[in-house]
Amino acid sequence: MIITLKKNAPAAEVEKLTKSFEEKGLQVNEIKGQDFNVFGLVGDTSRLYERDILANMWVENVQRVSAPYKLANRMFHPEDTIVDVAGIKVGGHEKIVIIGGPCSVEGEDQICRIAQEVSECGADMLRGGAYKPRTSPYAFQGLGYEGILDLVKARELTGLPVVSELMSADKIDEFAEHVDLVQIGARNMQNFDLLKAVGHMNKPVLLKRGMSATIEEWIMSAEYIMANGNPNVILCERGIRTFEKYTRNTMDLAVIPIIKERTHLPIVIDPSHASGDWKLIEPLSLAAIAAGADGLIIEVHDHPSAAWSDGAQSLKPENFQTLIQKAKLVAQAIGREL
Amino acid sequence: MIITLKKNAPAAEVEKLTKSFEEKGLQVNEIKGQDFNVFGLVGDTSRLYERDILANMWVENVQRVSAPYKLANRMFHPEDTIVDVAGIKVGGHEKIVIIGGPCSVEGEDQICRIAQEVSECGADMLRGGAYKPRTSPYAFQGLGYEGILDLVKARELTGLPVVSELMSADKIDEFAEHVDLVQIGARNMQNFDLLKAVGHMNKPVLLKRGMSATIEEWIMSAEYIMANGNPNVILCERGIRTFEKYTRNTMDLAVIPIIKERTHLPIVIDPSHASGDWKLIEPLSLAAIAAGADGLIIEVHDHPSAAWSDGAQSLKPENFQTLIQKAKLVAQAIGREL
Amino acid sequence: MIITLKKNAPAAEVEKLTKSFEEKGLQVNEIKGQDFNVFGLVGDTSRLYERDILANMWVENVQRVSAPYKLANRMFHPEDTIVDVAGIKVGGHEKIVIIGGPCSVEGEDQICRIAQEVSECGADMLRGGAYKPRTSPYAFQGLGYEGILDLVKARELTGLPVVSELMSADKIDEFAEHVDLVQIGARNMQNFDLLKAVGHMNKPVLLKRGMSATIEEWIMSAEYIMANGNPNVILCERGIRTFEKYTRNTMDLAVIPIIKERTHLPIVIDPSHASGDWKLIEPLSLAAIAAGADGLIIEVHDHPSAAWSDGAQSLKPENFQTLIQKAKLVAQAIGREL
Amino acid sequence: MIITLKKNAPAAEVEKLTKSFEEKGLQVNEIKGQDFNVFGLVGDTSRLYERDILANMWVENVQRVSAPYKLANRMFHPEDTIVDVAGIKVGGHEKIVIIGGPCSVEGEDQICRIAQEVSECGADMLRGGAYKPRTSPYAFQGLGYEGILDLVKARELTGLPVVSELMSADKIDEFAEHVDLVQIGARNMQNFDLLKAVGHMNKPVLLKRGMSATIEEWIMSAEYIMANGNPNVILCERGIRTFEKYTRNTMDLAVIPIIKERTHLPIVIDPSHASGDWKLIEPLSLAAIAAGADGLIIEVHDHPSAAWSDGAQSLKPENFQTLIQKAKLVAQAIGREL
Fold first, then answer.
1. Nearest-CA distance from A131 to chain C in Å?
2. Which of A332, A318, A319, A309 has the alpha carbon at shortest distance from A106?
3. Residue B117: pLDDT above 70?
4. Fewer CB atoms near the end CB (10 Å): N or C, chain A?
5. pLDDT tier at B34 (50, 70, 90 boundaries)?
6. Rounded to whole angstroms, how far apart are CA atoms D322 and D338?
7. Contacts of C247 in chain B (CB under 8 A)
8. How many secondary structure helices (H) and strands (E) does chain A include?
9. Are residues D57 and D107 in the same domain?
10. Are D212 and D189 in contact (CB under 8 A)?
11. Residue C114's closest CA among C161, C67, C56, C158?
12. Looking at the complex, does the CB of residue A20 fall below 8 Å from at least one CB of chain C?
């Protein structure tokens, strides 16, 4: 960690600050510049927080050199983490996984019907929301536990592991029993109590990036889950909020190589939320594969215009099938399998 | 609601869509343009969701004309809501309120000492975090229940009502018993289960704007609380995330007149989180008062450089006092009292 | 265009407004809602400007239904525009083009050497900046006319058409004589005088997206060039400015299908500026190809760490060659040639 | 400047890099950390550019400690710069200036009529656009030279100095002869050729912040003007582009204390463009005064709904007068005069 002091910092203050770091077991190296003094701290700085140091009025600037995350850090864990979701392996050089299904579970018939369709198209897992985070209190809020049980029936029918969003820690038992991959949604990426709760689960977690989360904050949220005991985290990019209005969000594909360089965790892309428009799903999906994604999670509905939520960004099964065929070719082109 | 269809939409599809709206009790008016067909829906559209309609492949565009919120809407509730926080009135033409205190409660001594200081400076309420949302799992997470009890002691000592952040619904009873104004933090603004939970409380709620929430999404989150039975919501702007790096966030003061025009709820500004830098607190606070804010919430610590969190953005009591003196003059200049 | 009036708009004002539109040759259709009145304007609204209508105090909202651009609009020009750059065809179903070369021309030797290298790797055109837009007045500003002449020599040597950035209308003659594809940089995307000037040129233009330009503003800038007489515009995405700091900008690949749907112009991607980091160029380039880009423009330097500008985002020739080999495979996978 | 090397950087590379800095007259100090090596460069680093150093593959990170601007830097020029605009002083402890007038000059009658009105309301200068940067090529582009001559007549009538936007260097003579304060618009903030050109003028310059420019980039653009010989720069905040859609832009008032801390230049706020809505102008103007602005530039039109541009954000003279009266009181409250 590099700390820049104001040039006019009194010697006594500088000494006090130096001592405070040394007491934390850090070695302090000083550089005197023309207009500033700079300290370099050598040692384990992962428990120091930049903004706390900035509180000293003689400190001009603080810059972290080593990343604030340890467990997720590729530097200390060079080999890829492969997450096992009920037998389906995600990450590393494994087969690219395709997760398909409706935004919301709308009933046993609907989810079983769509589950069979996505399975026939070649999907590896089934997604479906039973608890739905909706901007409006007047919008459909999901079928709840009934929806979870419907997913279980769809799994029995097709064999596909199921992915569903957990919004509240009081449903942990339900998810532990019935869901194969527990999704933490973008709006809850920094719901730290929920992160700690899934950190104690014995189920893999799909952690979506918050809509205005930096890559570092996102990794720190994964670190929360890992630090609480659960190493099985899959990161999921779903677009970030920008000024552009033609798309619902802006998909940030640079995260794929960055996450792979800085962490050892698998990364999956959600082009449905990233774009909000079914016509954009195919090109964005192929782009994600080409950039090295470990998987895709895509909204599929057999009657998008009658869907209870997010129909605008749902693919019909026939388009989902075409997408998978094309995605296979792109995966081959970059030396991976799908 | 205005719905634009693609020019080449088949007549049968147009008829089907028209019928579907009429079945919901809406009146459908059509305008035929050169390149598009447009429908106007007349009636209560608050239960329609734009994106669901977009799912129809013949729909080009959907625009809401009336706001999606009802209970928070000034149109249906023209008089100002005045929220009563343990006797302190917030909103309307009431005295502007000042909420001061440390980021984190660090123990009984600290919070009682600072409470007395902010009280002597003229603050109306005491803030202090007992449960802390921290980006890093390795950072101080707050004293928890002990911190809440420390706040209670500070209240006994000074008479100041206490404000503290609730992060999880399982602490509702604790907050219902001990806290006067329940804060929902920026990171939980769309934690809808938590919003529903505080909607059932009999305590006023301070709802912070999410760091990338639009004004409309923020009002919709207030609507969640109100629709679940709690009308006592105070909105709090704390800066939004932008590309600028000199400040922690960008304070958006236009929200003050906008919130007052569109809703009847009080609005309070948090310049500490908006800027992240104590040197900017005073000018931003005076600006907020001049723009019509109903209150300020400011981080105050007697030893910022030793604070357990957010010292960089904490004012010392002497600077807090100066700020309040200046703020009184600005309040007078615009015809309000503080 | 759809115009929403306030419910309390006086009849006389509504009539006045209606008449003002009818005088412009538009047909006015009215819908009366519960809380609002809505007008639909039928006819050519491309000369109306939303914000001018909003100036009427009785107007609540204005929404454009048809796009504000005509010449660039796919609706009025369904077939793809193929731009010919000194014999190299860009757009439609043509071969995907690769433009490579250094950020700055640093002298005849350097540009000729790199030109030969990129040519051997398979590039179709040579890029090189002679006039450089630099944030600092103290940074290298480009070799100017000498740099242009050096590019000419590199073209003579390799046969590659040359692309270079024009920053000022007073250099038009120089560019008309020597440059094959005239680049308008992101910072000048709304330098309207410069757009008009290149609109009068008889050379194709590469129009970069401004770093905070919406897709619509970007197309409107193309419309400026086209409306002044030059139909040969190639659009170039180079990343937009967001809150994320790990990358220099955020590459927005959704623009590829959107530009192709809304306009008939070719689109090229610049992963070098989009990411600012040479390690990210390859995955982002492959993603762009997979999403349907008509070309790539990539910074290549044989000694990046000695480059006079932008070395951090420059590929070495050997990495550029690898990238092209992989890009060929991805292009094949989606049925295109490169 | 602080340079962080990768831990595995070969000794020979480190030595080469060290030597390259020493050859530039810099002193190089090294700190060896656990996972990284860090260099501190002591000396004049204003001619080094961070991104050029990053091009070295062994460099992990570069951080500038001293600001990249010299002439605008308060550190080297502690006293406030007072800019004289035809006798009106701007900056320091001078009277706060009010600049009012229409978006566009629409003819001699209109500008003379409005000039008299804003003069009677108490404005210090007259604004009016003769050359207009418009998003659409089909929108009114300004009266050009005729508009400049109309402004001259309005000045003769009222004595108010005139402010107008220069869009192209080929109009420099016209502006040098007739305009008192030369405005560089947001879209041209990084039109470096134009910045150099006004740097050679003998007239003060009003430099608007680009809509996605960081504070540092904005100051660097001022530095361009100053480095070319013109020290009379007034900075003008006009809102930045964010995700929020209720306002045209988001006004960033934190810039006022930041610009005053880091530079010695005056700063003026433009609430008209920052909000895009006349109803927001008054609260935002009072906020700007309270935060310490040296002036306001406000769009005023006597018939906003008939204005040829930007009517939606224009105040009527009577509202402008009320605003000035209120602004005087706020100015007094903070110890300044207006």
1. 29
2. A309
3. yes
4. C
5. low
6. 14
7. none
8. 11, 14
9. no
10. no
11. C158
12. no
CA of A1: which chain D residue's CA is closest? Answer: D33
Asked if residue D238 and residue D126 are part of one domain, the reply reads: yes
Nearest CA in chain A to B276: A51
Q: State the Cα angle at B291 between B289 and B296, rounded to 5°.
A: 35
Do A266 and A155 fall within a single domain?
A: yes
Q: Is D148 inside a domain boundary?
A: yes
Q: Is the pLDDT of residue D8 over 70?
A: yes
Residues of chain B positioned with their CB less than 8 A from the CB of C42: 31-34
Report the pLDDT value the prediction gives residue A315, as an integer from 0 to 100.
95
Give the tens place of pLDDT for each residue, B46-71. 778 787 888 887 888 888 877 889 99
* Pairing label, strands C83-85, C2-6: unpaired
Confidence at residue B321, expressed as pLDDT on a 0 to 100 scale:
97
Asked if residue B69 belongs to a domain, the reply is: no
Contact B310, B272 (CB under 8 A): yes
Q: What is the DSSP string of A47-114?
A: T--HHHHHTSTTEEEEE-SS-S-STTBGGG--SPP-EEETTEEESTTSPPEEEEE-SB---HHHHHHH
Residue C228's nearest CA partner among D141, D173, D167, B35 is: D141
Range of the domain at C102: 74-333
| Res C243: pLDDT | 96
Q: Quick check: C33 pLDDT over 70?
A: no
Residues A173-207: pLDDT tens digits? 999 999 999 999 999 999 999 999 999 999 999 99
Task: Please indicate, yes or no, if residue B207 is contained in any of the structural domains.
Answer: yes
Query: What CATH code is carried by the domain that includes residue B234?
Result: 3.20.20.70
Residues D229 and D279 in one domain: yes
Q: Are B242 and D242 a contacting pair at CB < 8 A?
A: yes
Closest CA to A18 of A37, A44, A35: A37
Do A51 and A103 lie in one domain? The reply is no
Domain end among A36, A63, A90: A63
CATH (domain of C14) = 3.30.70.1140
- B318: how many CB neighbours lie within 10 A of its CB? 11
Chain B touching partners, 3 or more CB pairs below 8 A: A, C, D
Give the end of a domain, one of B44, B63, B82.
Answer: B63
Looking at the structure, tell me whether residues A130 and A215 fall in a common domain. yes
Per residue in A300-327, pLDDT (tens digit) is 999 888 888 778 889 999 999 999 999 9
Residues of B with Cβ-Cβ distance to A311 under 8 angstroms: 51-52, 54-56
* The one-letter amino acid at A113: R
Domain membership flag for residue A69: no
3-state secondary structure of A326: helix
- Please answer yes or no on whether A258 and C247 come within 8 Å at the CB atom: yes
> By mean pLDDT, which of C212-216, C286-290, D90-94, D308-312 is the weakest?
D308-312
pLDDT in tens, C79-122: 999 999 999 999 999 999 999 999 999 999 999 999 999 999 99
Q: Which residue of D has its CA nearest to B322?
A: D334
The structure tokens 């002869």 sit at D177
Strand partners, B315: B300
pLDDT tens, position by position, A80-119:
999 999 999 999 999 999 999 999 999 999 999 999 999 9
CB of A324 within 8 A of CB of A332? no
CB-nearest to A220 from B135, B190, B196 is B135
Q: What pLDDT sits at residue B11?
A: 85
Structure tokens at C244: 């994320």
CB contact under 8 A, A32 and D42: yes
Residue D181 shares a structural domain with residue D225: yes
- Total number of domains in chain A: 2
What is the ipTM score, two decimals?
0.93
Given an 8 Å threshold on Cβ–Cβ distance, is D334 in contact with B330? yes
Stretch among A169-173, C66-70, D87-91, D130-134 having the lowest mean pLDDT: C66-70
